Backbone:
């Protein structure tokens, strides 16, 4: 059995405490000793605080990680998204959201006391969606194919308006520490999701053991953010071709064809250029 540390994100792979498969019993994540495991016969996937054991060849239903947001809260969050996409996050007021939701501002505050609380609601809703998607990838025998299908869903099938919404929230994060903290937390969770999946894929032999999972996900995350940014800023952006390029890079990264451990190249001096720093040879001046 190969073990990896659990980073205590909503997704981790950990062994059942007694090693036995009981699909009716959830296993809690022990923060002191939680680990990621992968064996030939069984895998355990943590989903929030609920663990489901996935045996070879068995595809159990997704665990219930939350009861979900009630219809009223969902309606308000939908209205908030419409307002962000129409007028931007910064200019959207609680009164705008209440009007779009067809309720009084006082009633809105009963559900969400601030715009930051609304952002938190959106993030939690997206986390539930992401969790289901990543569970499907994790239990797949074709990690690369599952990542491509997941990327197609989020990069090609996601409406451009959603990309604009993400850009608005990211812009707000640049000036609002509370929003920045929420965005950073969900980014870390998503990245940890994907790193854990790649580590399990290495154990099962789907990708080379030499692949640096964290480095691969860092590159792919940056490219994914760039795809969303391009779609938001350029209505005519060729997302199909952009996704094709992203998949080609992903394939090369996961197969180990692109070495990610090489240092930056030394920049030679040229006439009229600042001297190269001795401590940082890739930086001039």
Residues:
């Amino acid at each position: 059995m190969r073990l990896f540390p659990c980073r205590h994100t909503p997704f981790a792979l950990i062994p059942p405490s007694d090693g036995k498969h009981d699909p009716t019993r959830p296993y809690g994540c022990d923060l002191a000793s939680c680990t990621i495991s992968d064996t030939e016969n069984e895998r355990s996937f943590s989903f929030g605080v609920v663990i489901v054991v996935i045996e070879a060849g068995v595809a159990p239903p997704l665990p219930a990680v939350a009861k979900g947001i009630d219809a009223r809260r969902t309606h308000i969050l939908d209205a908030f998204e419409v307002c962000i996409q129409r007028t931007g996050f910064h200019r959207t007021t609680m009164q705008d959201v209440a009007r779009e939701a067809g309720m009084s501002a006082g009633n809105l505050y009963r559900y969400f006391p601030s715009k930051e609380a609304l952002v938190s609601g959106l993030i939690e809703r997206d986390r539930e969606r992401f969790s289901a998607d990543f569970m499907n990838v994790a239990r797949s025998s074709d990690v690369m194919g599952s990542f491509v299908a997941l990327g197609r869903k989020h990069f090609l099938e996601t409406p451009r308006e959603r990309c604009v919404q993400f850009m608005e929230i990211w812009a707000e994060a640049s000036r609002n520490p509370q929003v920045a903290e929420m965005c950073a937390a969900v980014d870390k969770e998503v990245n940890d999701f994907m790193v854990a999946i790649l580590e399990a894929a290495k154990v099962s032999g789907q990708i080379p053991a030499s692949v640096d999972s964290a480095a691969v996900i860092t590159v792919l995350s940056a490219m994914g953010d760039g795809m969303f940014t391009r779609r938001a800023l350029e209505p005519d952006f060729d997302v199909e071709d952009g996704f094709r390029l992203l998949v080609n890079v992903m394939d090369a990264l996961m197969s180990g064809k692109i070495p990610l451990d090489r240092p930056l190249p030394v920049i030679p001096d040229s006439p009229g250029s600042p001297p190269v720093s001795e401590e940082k040879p890739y930086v001039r001046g």
